[in-house]
Amino acid sequence: METATPIQPTTQPPVQAPVTPGVSSVTPTTPQIVTESLHDNYVKGSFKRRLGAFLIDFLLCYAALVVVRFSNIPSLYLWISIATVVVALCYAPLFIWKWGATPGKMVCKLKVVKTDYQKVGFWRALLRETFAKWISSFFFNLGYFWMFLNKQRMTWHDEIAQTVVVEVDSNRQLMPSTISPKVSVKNIISFFITYILFGTPFIFLILYVFFFRPFQVNGISMQPNYTNKEYFITKLMYGSVERGDVFVYKAPDSPRKDYIKRVIGLPGETIMISTGKVYINGQLLDETSYLASTVITSGGSYLPDGKTITIPNDSYFMLGDNRSQSIDSRQYGPVAKQLLIGKELFCYFNCAK
Question: For residue 251, what are the β-bridge partners?
Fold first, then answer.
């Protein structure tokens, strides 16, 4: 870091130049030093370098989690897991506080500094790597891509923590720049292209994890309404469960499998199968909206013909539409609500109807 030493005033009176009649003279004065803001004087980290650093750090943390996951020391597993979580939270703040960069940023020759290019303190680093990055993740990581529209290439978490990411040389020294920072048309175009390329997959990931999920029908237990190899979308946030709804759920008799069946009995109701028909609370169930009138429903090992059971709270009695070829609640009993995955929304490929 360049420094300026203040000039001490002299105690001797200034020497006056002799004045020659008829000749103009100039008295020499101490020149004023004009400095440009340091904020504009160093090369800022590019998006490619910052992305590369992120990927390296992500792989390092993921590798540590894999080691813990496959650890064969049961007595230490809990403590190792807790230590891993703590390290994951403090990983970036500690490195940035101590060395100004995470291992990924070191490899990519980047450094995090304050806006005055001084060392980042621990609390500022913690703010940047936790709450501020959480803010940057809003609107599908819009805050990360904001660097394209900022003259100093600052993301939202940089703005909040008042930090900048700069490039460094092989000696970890900041690299001076004579180029005045600006947002060009190229930066604006890069912002939209990058946001579409990287933000769109993230949008689909959010939708997949929290809202919708595709499934494929394997088997004939739901024919003729749902055929083998049919693809459909389920709604994960399905709200209330109604009789006649078709759900995908974790198989009670085989947790590694997912079943697709129809809701027939609701919590607290009684159900009985007799003479090929289903009775709910002693009343014949009308299933003509999804089954042919000729379909015969037989009992199973859990619910034999003529036996009446009460469906437990937060559980549902599920049956396949192809009653003679379906393994369902007649064999393994009611399905607990926590096993439900999603409600069938619509078919999008190889549809039966």
Answer: 254
Q: Distance of CA 255 to CAs 118, 162, 216, 249, Å?
A: 55, 49, 17, 9
| Domain-located, residue 10 | no
In this predicted structure, what is the pLDDT of residue 7? 39
Distance CA 30, CA 259 (A): 87
Domain that holds residue 243: 213-349
In a shared domain, residues 222 and 106: no
Q: Do the beta carbons of residue 211 and residue 234 sit within 8 Å?
A: no
Give the span between the Cα atoms of 110 and 102, in whole angstroms.
Answer: 9
The answer to whether residues 177 and 56 belong to one domain is yes
Residues 72 and 202 in one domain: yes
Give residue-wise pLDDT tens across range 164-192. Answer: 999 999 999 999 988 888 899 999 998 99
Catalytic residues: 221, 261
336 SS3 class: strand
Total domains, the chain: 2
Co-location of 199 and 273 in the same domain: no
* Residue whose C-alpha is closest to residue 260's, from 272, 279, 245, 238: 245
The Cα–Cα gap between 304 and 70 comes to 44
pLDDT per residue as tens digits for the range 18-58: 444 443 333 444 444 333 344 457 999 999 999 999 999 98
pLDDT at residue 243 is higher than 90: yes
Query: Is residue 16 domain-resident?
Result: no
- What does pTM read for this prediction? 0.53
CB atoms within 10 A of CB 322: 17
For residue 275, report the phi and psi dihedrals to the nearest 5 degrees: 50, 40
Q: Are residues 272 and 196 in the same domain?
A: no
Strands 315-319 and 212-216: unpaired
CA atoms within 13 A on the CB side of 160: 20
- Alpha-carbon distance of 198 to 190, in angstroms, equals 12
Residue 321 falls inside a structural domain: yes
- Binning pLDDT at 50, 70 and 90, where does residue 77 land? low
